[in-house]
């Protein structure tokens, strides 16, 4: 399998293709495009049938092998998957044809654990012996803890997580500062954008070349591909017939999660409708409605804070799959087939008021506890109920309600119980370094 850049059609676009390990370790193509696999494997009805009853790790091995074939043996991939995925996905029946899948049983209690744990192990596998790697992550919350926990204890790798000191929630900060070992939390006296700028300066600094910096960025193929796996897993858990198509509702920000469903469908998984649910950052629903893409800048601060994305990076990959080209600044060079997109994709923006009302409604009506991101999806489900009702529908709950105790307490009057994985994690000693909002401060730490 080779990987190309989504910008290859642009003037000065980057034509050469790369192997999986190159795309993984480079993160982003030299022309700032996103790496895409040249072809997608196709799973026949019989192959889908053989996935029934398999463990998550076994299904991950089947789905991901074609993407690493030639560079990693199937046995090595199976070992990585078994090591990465020891937790389940609870599937709660809510109503006649409607289920909630909780992707919150990993070490840091958000769906980002699925991608981060695979990526960390694949990185270790492909990192040449003796070579050291320094991972820098700027985070507004969930990404930093998922990446930090996934790389914890991995030899040869040091991780620095930069987060805005006053802009993460209490639980989110506890998760960042209690990983320890080779993972160092850096509390920046600034905003999320400042953290991102500091990280960018580090990547541009030639004096740091010897540190071998890597970004573990959310658009890395090593993070996107494993997000196709849980759609296969959930489908075989819920369906009885090989040709039974189901719908998925995905709370979305940067569109990496929903892209996993789009890729799964193109690999032969019977997915009927894919609902992309956003908060007030409504660039995607507006695009599907008007056919013209306009990014939202600056992004809007909504209660579902991990989805506060005004110009979703992975939209460039959707454009590519539907025959278009979109650059990182949100400029359309070639329009995709919008009619075809509308056939498969539904999208709607949900306000903060609707989000908190949905948390209350789902608890009252179904005794189902949602956090703000899942509630955005649940509200979107209700809006499209007519279009979805003929099939089984699964809503992905992307984080554990215990990550957002303040809002759950405010809406439901109780604090959600903290899951075991998170409890264990919160027992670790806390350690953070507070840093001034300037690049020099980070550089001193890195060179120390
Ligand atoms: C990151 C995140 C999202 C958004 O996922 P994308 O892949 O960026 O669309 C949704 N919910 C939670 C809890 C997240 O952490």
TrEMBL record:
The keyword Protein biosynthesis does not apply. Residues 94-395 form the Tryptophan synthase beta chain-like PALP domain. Residues 2-85 form the Threonine synthase N-terminal domain. Its EC number is 4.2.3.1. SUPFAM superfamilies: Tryptophan synthase beta subunit-like PLP-dependent enzymes (SSF53686). Its cofactor is pyridoxal 5'-phosphate. GO terms for molecular function: threonine synthase activity. Belongs to the threonine synthase family. This is Threonine synthase. It comes from Flexibacter flexilis DSM 6793.
